[in-house]
Amino acid sequence: MIKSFALSLALAFGASAAERAEDRWALADLYPSVQAYREDAARLQAELESFGACRGHLAESAARLKSCLERYSSFSKRLARLDVYASQLLAEDTGVAESLELNEQARRLRSDREQASAFLRPELLRAGRARIDKLVAEDAGLRAYRHYLDDILRMAPHTLD
User: Fold this and answer.
1) What are the chain's domains?
2) Which of 72, 88, 124, 129 would bridge 25 by S-S if both were Cys, CB 3.0 to 4.6 A apart?
3) Any long-range contacts for 35-39 (C-beta under 8 Å, 24+ apart)?
4) How many CB atoms lie within 10 A of CB 21?
5) pLDDT tens digits for range 37-78
């Protein structure tokens, strides 16, 4: 009885979703191959390591603030892309070791991004609203980051030195 039920389920559902190409994510839209993913992840890691050059210089000038925020925004978007690729690849089949490895690599990159950019909030708070407003007024390109900056600066009264 149980064997016939299992057989009828197997026949009813046919191939598993992992076996049908039409049921897989279109991950090539993000990266054409795992190798392309790995190359972008390596470039992102290098960018995260060099982002420390912004530390201590964030509010020196409008150009410097804009450059640092553009870099942060750029690698955050790329990290999201890497993360989606890795997590969706893993969702296709959680038993594939390479998918587990890529998902773990994306998790480490998220952690590295948080570590590399940990100085942003304290430096912006230290610079203060008046200085940041002055810098935004000097460079129209900084207006794109107004919400991000305001979100941080509005927390100043609730943040310890």
Assistant:
1) 16-158 (1.20.140.70)
2) 88
3) 37/82, 37/85, 37/86, 37/102
4) 5
5) 999 999 999 999 999 999 999 999 999 999 999 999 999 999
d(CA 99, CA 107) in angstroms, rounded, equals 12
For 79-114, write each residue's pLDDT tens digit.
Answer: 999 999 999 999 988 999 999 999 999 999 999 999
CA 71 to chain CA centroid, Å, is 12
Query: Does the structure show a pLDDT above 90 at 148?
Result: yes
Is residue 81 within 8 A of residue 30, CB to CB? The reply is yes
- Alpha helices by DSSP H, the chain: 2-13, 34-50, 62-92, 97-116, 120-138, 146-153
Contact present, 72 and 117 (Cβ < 8 Å): yes
